[in-house]
Amino acid sequence: MIDGVPVAVGERALDLLHALIRRRDRTVSKAELLDVVWPGAFVEEGNLYVQVSALRKVLGERVIVTVPGRGYRFVAPLLEPAAAPAFERMHPRDISELPAEPPPLIGREDALVLLSEWVLEHPLVTVTGAGGIGKTRLALAVAITHRSRWPDGVAWIECSAVREGGQLAQAVAQATRVALGNARSAEQLASELRGRSMLLFLDNCEHLLDATGALVSTLRRLTPEVHLLVTSQQALRTSGERVFQVSPLAVPGTHDVPDESFGAIRLFAERARAIDRRFRIDASNRATVGDICRQLDGLPLAIELAAARVKLLGVKGLHERLDDRLRLLTGGIRDAAPRHQTLRAALEWSHGLLSCAEQTVLRRLGVFIGGFTLELAQDVARDAGGSELDEWAVLEAVSALVDKSLISVELGEPVRYRLLETIRLFALEQLDAAGESSSRRTRHSHAVSDLFASVDESRWGDHATATASEVTQRLRPEIDNARAALEWSMHIGDAPTAISLAGAAASLYVQLGLTSELVPILQTLRARLEEAPASAQVNVLWRLGTLGVQAGMRQDELLFIKMEAVAKARAAGFRRRLQVTLAALGFTRARQGELNAAQAIHAELLGLERPNDPAYLRGLRLTVEMMIHEHRNNIEQAVVCLRKQREVLRSAPDEVLPLMTCESNLVMYLDILGRFEEAAELGATIVARPDLPRTFIFAICWTAYALAALGRLDQALLMMRSRRREIAASPIGVYSAESLAMLCLAGGRLHDAVAIDAAARLQENLARKMPHPLTQAFRARLDNEIARADVGPADLARWRSVGESLSDEAAVELALG
C-alpha cells in the first residue's frame, strides 16, 4: 500500500523487492538478483532494470539506489506494521511515467553529452536515424538525466501508439494531464500549456510527420517555455528545428584489434553476458565478434538480437548464419516495442511508411554492394522508356530515403550513398518478391561495366587525360560492385559485359591484391573475346599477358598473349593501347634475350611518342631500354635509364603508382650491384609512403633484401612480416624467393635458404621462366656460402628435396617464422 491505497505490483517486481529487503544490509550484485528472481533461467540484464524502474515508480526514486559497477541496494527505513504507511511516495517531477534512472547507454557517451547540450540550449531538437539505431534510448537518457532542468516536468509521449494525426494533440494532453474538451486542437493545447517550463518528449513520430510538424510549430509559436525533443526516422523540417543524426555504433576496421573500446563490441559483449554470464571476448572469438559487428554495421538492435543467439549457437555458429540474419535475429526483450522484437519487424515498420516509388527504388538499390553514386542509382533503379519512375523520380526517391534514414550519405567527390547491409538484405528480399532480381542485377552489371569502361577510356584512350590517382580515386569505391557485376555477368553468360568490365577493372584488382581472383576470370573470357569491343579485347589480353606470371602461367603462353594484344591494338588503330602493349611485349623479349626484337619494339615506341603524351607513356620506352641493358648485363646503364624514368614521372605528381614501381625497380638493381646502403635508403622512403598499396610486395621484398644483406635482420623481418599475407598469396618465384632466402642466410640458416631457393627453381622450371637477375645474384652468393660451409652433396640434395615439397605459404612461414 502507498499512503493507505493498494497499488498493483507485478510478481517479478515483488520477488525483487523481497530479495532486496532481505539483503538490505549490503549492496546486491545484478548477477545475484538475476539468480534469485529468475532461478534457473537465463534472462537479459535489461529485465532487471525494468523491474527496478517499476518499483521506483511505485515507491519513489530514493528507495532503491544504484551502486555503479556493483548493483542495487534497498535503503528506505522499515516501519513496524502498526506504524504509519510503510512508504511515503517521493514525488517525482515528471508528469508522465519516466523511469527513475536513465537506461544504460553503451558506446553513446559522446552522443549523450552533445545531445544534452542541444536539448538544453535549443527549444526544438529532432533525433533521427534508422530503425533500431537507438534513438529512443539516447533521447530518453537525456530527458531523465536533465529532468530537473524543467520545473514543470517532462512528458513522454509514445507516438507509435497514435494511429492518426488528429489524435496527436489529445495524446500530448493526456501525457501532460490537461483537458482539451471537444476541440482537441493544437491551439487549445498550447493555451493549456502556456507558461509552463517543461520538456515534451515526442517519441517515434515518423508515421505522423505532418501532424507532428504542425503541432510542434504551433507549440513553438505559442508556448516558448516548452522545449520539444522528438525522435523520428525523418526530420520534421520545421522552423527552428535542430536535427541530431544518430550514427551506428563504432565498429573495428579489418586491421583494428576488435576489443571493447568499440561501442559495437562492448554492446555485443554486454548483451551476450546478460544471457550467459560466462561469456567473454578473448583471443579465440575476438576476430569473429569483430566481423559480426562489422557485418551488422554497428546497428544496436541487430547487435543485441545477435548477441542473444550466442548461448544457443556460439559465436562461430552465429557468424556462419549471418547471411540469413532477417530470420535469425528474432527474440528481442519482451518489454520492447513489437517492431523491435525482431530485425524484420523493425525493417517492415520503416518500409511500410514509404511511398510506392520509394519502396521500388529501395529494393532496386539492394543490388549495390558497398555503396553507389547518384548516377549509378539512377541508371539501375529507373524504369525503361517513358515511365514515371525516370531519373528525376529516382533522384527524389533517393533524397526521401536519405531523409528517412534508410540510406546513409558518405561525403566526398562524388558523393556516395549506402544502404546498411541489414537494410540491403531486406531490400533484396523485396526485389525477389517483386520478380525483379534478375533484371536489376543485369542492369547493375551493365551500369558498372559502362562506368569502368568510361574511366578506362579516360586513362588509356588516344585522347585520355586522367591520371593514375584520378582513376584510383574514382573506381576504388566501386570494387565490390565490380566484383558482383563480373560474377553476375559471367553467371548469365553475358560475355561482352564481363570482358569489358574485367579488362577495365584489372589495374584496380591488382592494386587491391585481387590478382589471383582476376587471372582465372581473364583466362576464361579469352575464349569469347570476339564478342566484345576491340578496346576490351586489347585490355583483357594486355592484362592477362602481364599478370599471368603471378598465377604461374608459362612464359611461352604469356609471350603469345602479349603478341596477340599488340596485333589487336595495331589493327584497331589504338595508338596509346599499342604503346602499352608494345612495352609489355618488349619487356618480355628483352628478358628472354631476343634483343633484336626488343630493339625493334623500342624504335617503334620512340616513333609512337608525341610531345604532349603523359609522363607514364613517355616512360614506357625507357622500361624497354632498361630491360635491354639488363640482358646485356649492363646494370649500371639500366640504373641510368631508371633514373631518367624517375625524373619523367616526378614531373607528374599524380602518377604515384608508376613512380613507386620505377623506384622499386631501382632498389632491385642497386641490390644486384651490391649497393645495399643506397638500396635500403631508397627502399625505406618507398615503404614509408602512406599511399603504398599493400600489393606492392616487390618494394618490400627488395628493400628487405638490402637490409638483410647489411645485417639488419630485425628490420628486414619486421618489414616482410608486415606483408606476410600478400607475400604468401603470390608464387614466391615471382618476387619474394631471393628475399626470403636472404633472410634465412642472414640468420645463419643455410639449409632453409637452400630449401627456399629450390622451391623457386621448381616454379621457374614449370613456368619455363628465366631466373630474375636478382635471383641470379643471390644464387651466386648462396653458392659461395655453400662452398664456404663445405656442405656435402647428400646434405645439399636433402635440403633441396625439402624445398621442392614446400608450398608458397610454407616457404613464407619457414623464412618469417
Structural account:
The protein has 817 residues and is mostly helical. The chain folds into seven domains: 11-74, Winged helix-like DNA-binding domain superfamily/Winged helix DNA-binding domain (Arc Repressor Mutant, subunit A, Orthogonal Bundle), CATH 1.10.10.10; 109-245, 3-Layer(aba) Sandwich (Rossmann fold), CATH 3.40.50; 263-344; 354-435, Winged helix-like DNA-binding domain superfamily/Winged helix DNA-binding domain (Arc Repressor Mutant, subunit A); 466-572, no CATH class; 574-654, no CATH class; 679-816, no CATH class. The protein has 40 helices and eleven strands. Helix 8 (209-222) links the parallel strand 6 and strand 7. Helix 30 runs antiparallel to helix 31 and helix 36 (737-746) packs parallel to helix 40. It is elongated and about 100 Å long. Residues 80-94 and 332-341 have low confidence and may be disordered.
Tally the helices: what do you get? Answer: 40
For the secondary structure, the number of strands is 11
Question: In terms of per-residue confidence, which ranges show pLDDT below 50 for 5 or more consecutive residues?
Answer: 80-94, 332-341
Helical residue percent band: 55-70%
Number of domains: 7
Main sheet makeup? 5 strands, parallel
* Percent strand: 5-15%
Shape: elongated
How do the strands line up in the largest sheet? 5-6-7-4-8
Q: Distance between the terminal alpha carbons, to the nearest Å? A: 72 Å
What would the average pLDDT be, to the nearest integer?
A: 87
Helix/strand structural class: mainly alpha
**Using only CA atoms, what is the Rg?**
34 Å
